[in-house]
Each structure stands twice: as structure tokens, then as C-alpha cells.
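ugh ok fine here u go
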Amino acid sequence: MPATITGGYVRNMWLRLIRSHMSALERIREPPVSQLGPEPEPDKRMLRRGLLAVRSGLTAGDVRKTAEKLALRALELPELAHASTVAAYVSVGSEPGTRALLDALLARGVRVLLPVLMADNDLDWGAYAGEESLVRVQHGGKMALLEPAGDRLGPEAVRDADVVLLPGLAVDARGMRLGRGGGSYDRVLARLERAGADPALVVLLYDTEVVERVPAEAHDRPVHAVVTPSGVRRFR
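structure:
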């Protein structure tokens, strides 16, 4: 039976996966900041596996339909309505789709920056100029990414963004985001903080990926909003 995003199959699969991880999550509920460190990482790995397992059951049709809804919801954000520069990313595989949103922003005249993954997992940036400006890049044993083919603008270019759209696997009631674990966006957020930049931080997810609690470490930073196919939730 093919999985659908809103159907009972995926919802039940999600519930089983989350319940299987709840005992691990309970152990780290509301830890003092001084105790945050490498300890939550095993719990992050378990939660990532569960979330990725659910995503792997989605069809191309599921992803396409939710991408259109995500674009409509995201474009309602005042932050995006008034943005002149947005740092975004090109979704791949079963990630919540971003292509419709990227094209809508470009049509509005917004300058859209897309990441270029470097060898050390840091991110350079390039400008998006439509589908023809993207190239498929295979990064070693990692997934292939669609990246801008034009000039590299440097890692500091993200400081110009009014809004940063972040990839993720989940976000919790505090706005804490669970990423894939590569650390690329931890570096981006640290770079913004050092520069005193304060763009709106927005994560795009499926409805089931907004959860009660994800493990957090001292370097983790909350996002300001999450956009899902059914709506927007703000954390500031």
C-alpha cells in the first residue's frame, strides 16, 4: 500500500516510530544548559532514523502535492513578503519540496541564494536564476545535491539574507530544529550570530514532523517559524 502524507498508514507508522523513541527522549527532557553536550547525539540518531523511514515511504506525487501547499503557506509569511534576499535550498528526494517556492520568490523579484556544499561541510552560496541555473553535484558518499552553477559568493553571503529557509527533519514546541547531523547549518547560524545578523529563520516540514520535543545541545539555536502544508507556527 503506497504511503500518503495525510493517510492513516503514514500517521500510524509515525506514531509507532515516535512511541518507540519516547523513553529516550524522556531522559533528556528540560536539561540545564550546562549539561547539554554530546550526550543527546545517540537520541538524535534514533529520531533521525525514524523520521527518514517515514519520508522514504512517500511517493513523488505526495511530495509534489505538498510542495505546492508549502509554497502557498510560506508565501503568506510577512517576512517573505517583505524580503529582498532569501537564503534557501533545493529539496531532494522525499524532502518537503522547495522548487515551487523558489520559483515564486524569483518571480517576485527576490534575490534567492542557494547553498553550495564545501569539502569541510561548510556552505558557500550562489544565486538562483531558475531551473536551468542548477547542476547536480555528487558529494562523495553523500546524497547528490542540486546547486547553483554560477559564481560563488562566499560563505559570508548568507549575512545579506532577510530570511533563511532551513532544511530539517523535525521541530519541537520550543522551535528547536533537528537537522540531518552534518553540521552545515550549525555553522551558518553561528556565522549569522557572530555578524550580529538577525534574519527570520524558517524551517519547512511535513505536518507530522512538528513534535513535542527533540534533543538539544548547547550549540543548537531555535528557529522562528515552521511552515507545513497545513499552516504556520511561530516561536517568537
